[in-house]
User: Fold this.
Amino acid sequence: MYIFRAGVVGAGTMGGEIAQVISFSGLPVVLKDVDQTMLDRGMATIRRIYQSRVDKGKMSAGEMASKLALVAPTLTYDGFGDVDIVIEAVPEKMAIKKQVLAELERVVPEMTIFASNTSALSISELAAATRRPARVIGMHFFNPAHVMRLVEIIPGLETSQETIDDVVTFAESLRKIAVVVQECPGFLVNRLLMPYLNEATYCLQEGAAAAAEIDKAVAEFGMPMGPFALMDMIGIDVCQHIEEYLYSEYGPRMEPAQLFAMLTAAGRLGKKVNKGFYGYGGETDEPVLQMIAGFSRASDSAFSIERVIYPLINEAILALQEHIASINDIDMALIAGAGMTYRGERKGPLTIADLIGLDAMLAGLEQFHARYGERFRPARLLRAKVRAGHLGVKTGRGFHEYA
Assistant:
C-alpha cells in the first residue's frame, strides 16, 4: 500500500518533529493535539527546523512555505478521514495510547496503519486493544527526529507482513534507515544503551571516577558524547523509568544504580531543568558530589572503558541470541541510532567484539562478573563462539566473517 497522507497524534517535541520529517518528504500530514498551546508549540518546532534550513542556504523561503503548507494542525479528528498511516506520539502511558487508538478506530479508514512511537511499551498489548491488530506496529523515531536517521520498526505478535513491508517502505521514503526489531522490552537501541549508562552510573556512585573523567574516556573510545552528558540530555527521570522497566523484565543484570532515584527525587532531571549529573547556567554539580560522598566506597571498584562498554556489547549478543534482530541490523542500529564508532570508524557492537577478540571479551566479562555480579554474566552465545574457535578478526570468523 502506498502512503499518500499521514496523521500524527501528539504535538510535543517528537510529534512535531515527526510531522516535519513527513512534510519534508513531500507528503501532507495532519498534526493533532488536545491542547492548543501544545499544537502551537508543535508548529513552532516545525517552523524552527525549516527556518534553520533557510538560514543555512539549504532551502528557499518559498520552499519553506510550501513545506509548511503540507502540515495541517488540528484539535479534532476531522482531517483523519483519508489518512493511510497514523503515528501516535502521545505520553508513554499505555492507557493514554489505548484511548487514542480507540478514538482513531472510529474515524480512520479500515486499512489505515496504526504506528506507535513508543520507545518501550508492548506493541502486542496496544494491538490487542484494537479491532485491527494486523495493522498495528511500532515505529520508533529517535530524538531529534529530523536529525537522527534510525527508525526502529517493531511488529507485534499479530502484525501482518504487509504492514511491516509498508512501514519499512514509508520509513525509507522519509530518508530514514529502517531496522526491523522483534518485540522485546526496550526494543533494540534502548535495551543496549541502558546497561552501558547504568554501569557508568555505578562507577560514579562508587567513586571509581568523576563524571567528566568517564565522559572523556567514553568520547575518546568513540561515542559521540559521554554517558552523563547523554543522560542529562535525555532526562534523568526518563532514564530511571526505562531502567526500572528493563529491571522488571530482565532481572538482576539490569538492576539500576541507586543514584538515578536520588537525582530524580532531588529534581535533578537534566538539561531541561539546568541540573542533572552536571550543573548548567547558575547550577553546579555540588549536590551530586554530596550524594556520591554518602555512599560507602567500594574498595574493589575501578573504572575502565571495558567496564562500561562490555555490558552494551554483551546485551547486543543476547539480543542476537534471542533473534531480536540480525547481526548487520544490530550493528547498523547502534551506528545510526547512537553514533557508535571504534578507532575513528563507524562500527557497531558486534563488529567491535570481533575486533577486540571474543576470547578477550569473554575473559573480561568473567572477571567483571566475579567482581561486580550479575550485570556482567556473559551471554551463552559468546561462550559458544569462543568454544568453537570463532574468536573474531584474528581467526577470520566471529559474529562476522573475514577474508
